[in-house]
Amino acid sequence: MPDPQQPWYTPGPPQQPVPGNPYASGDGAQQGFGTPLFGPPTPPPPTPRRRFGRGPVVAAVVALVLVIVAGGVYGLTDWGRDDPTKPVAKKSPGPSGSASPSGTPAAGAPKLSHIPTTKEVAAARKPGEASAWIADDTTDLPKQSNKVHDLWIVGDTAVQALYRKVTAYRLSDGAEVWSVTLPSAVCETPANPTPDGKVVVFRHERPDNERGNLCNQMQMIDLKTGKQGWHKKLDEPGDDSTFIVYSAISGDVLSVARGMVAITYRMSDGSKLYEIPRENKGKCVPDDVAGGASRLLVSSECMVAVERGKNYGQVRELDPRTGKVLWRYRMKTGWRFGGLISMDPVVFTIYNDKDIVSDWRITVLDPKGKHRVTFDARDKGFEQCAGTGAGGDIQPCWGASVDKGLIMLGGQNQAGAYDVKTGKFLWGIKDNRLRTLYALRAEGGTSMRIYEAAGPSTPGRTFLMGPRGAGTETEVVKHPAATAPWEYEMFSGHTAYVDGRLVLTPTSVSGDENHKPVREARMLSFAASP
């Protein structure tokens, strides 16, 4: 059994080059796109895939035989509590093992013109593998990268917006329960719906995709039924700058930030409640919002000087219904709010305005907004929000979560746990195969349930890992080989874990049918075999 007191990082064996794969190197370096996912507000998509119509239907047996690959050895190493050798934090190149820029799939990834049905996947399932369903969507999309928006779990459905459609899929089998087609493309969604399953999506003003198309149409939708409610145009001051909009739902209150203006609305009818004020003589401008079951956080940039390094960030908690400031927390000069890891307790990243990629920390506040602890996770090789960095929506911070007293961080090659009260590093694991690890939730207060993303031709897996270290992990869901290529296409995508079921979706899909004959699945889900 590994000794948890040993160094947290134990180098694995050198990665051997994979013939024909330009992204596999002998030194085990990280591979990928070369830029963080959130340099721009949305993550860079995988190489565009064909989305128009269906390719030739291949016999199920032939199609699935192509994707069944023998499993390899999992190369995990573990970390202890004290680390005499601290790796240097470096800029993330983005997700690993991606399709090459030339448009050819990574080595081992077959060209896929047919997405198997759930029935075909079940027929190819091997003993011990998880049950799985796969959802396709043949909607014609523009020949561009189309963002796949926030993933909502409402009742027994998984709901998501893509282009002009909002669709609900049944969690048990992936069947489409309902869909709503809107007059124009969705451009913004909040991270969570109301407690009773209602949400407001934001769509463009016009149906075209030309520049200057404002994101100013609010549409309420009941996610339990698909029924549309009120519709309202953002017509408050600042409407002319509604190209980038951020939104959040706090109980029955919708908050919207854009163009240095933040306003709240009543979810029941869309009526305006109040404007979130600027502070410090108008120098602290609200720039983003985050919501939850009953809490509202507002981040601000305080522009007190011409030089950005002399400005600072601030976060406030407001009573969602009245707008009363419950507390405010100011960051150090030159530091800004990065991404929200947890609403309760409030845990978030901060970053240095002079180096937004590599100079960052994690801050924990107590229930009254007082500083509890700030710690540096870079000495273990972690990157801000799993390499997505700062920028875009502050909620959520990808690859990070808080559960049962643990701050759980994931990312390319590694996952680890910190104590939420002290910021002390507890334990962690590394994977020497360039895989992305997602911490799904804490188990028993000491262990984590981790999702390991798929490789180009090998499936992912879900396993339990705790402070006893690598070699003691327990595999709880063996993902089927038959869905590996489509699981791989969803790297760095949206994930949700509910009642023992893992749901995956991509972050974007392309409508470029001339790029190459590869189809992307719309949603994929796994559950342990009964």
TrEMBL record:
Gene3D superfamilies referenced in this protein's UniProt entry, alphabetically: YVTN repeat-like/Quinoprotein amine dehydrogenase (2.130.10.10)
Biased composition (Low complexity): 90-111
SUPFAM superfamilies registered for this protein in UniProt: Quinoprotein alcohol dehydrogenase-like
KW Iron (keyword) present: no
Keyword Ligase belongs to the record: no
Domain of life the protein comes from: Bacteria
UniProt entry keywords in alphabetical sequence: Membrane, Transmembrane, Transmembrane helix
Annotated TM spans: 57-76
Compositionally skewed regions (Pro residues) per UniProt: 1-20, 38-47
Domain (Pyrrolo-quinoline quinone repeat) ranges: 155-275
Annotated stretches, region: Disordered: 1-52, 79-113
Protein name stated in the entry: PQQ-binding-like beta-propeller repeat protein
Natural source organism: Streptomyces rubiginosohelvolus
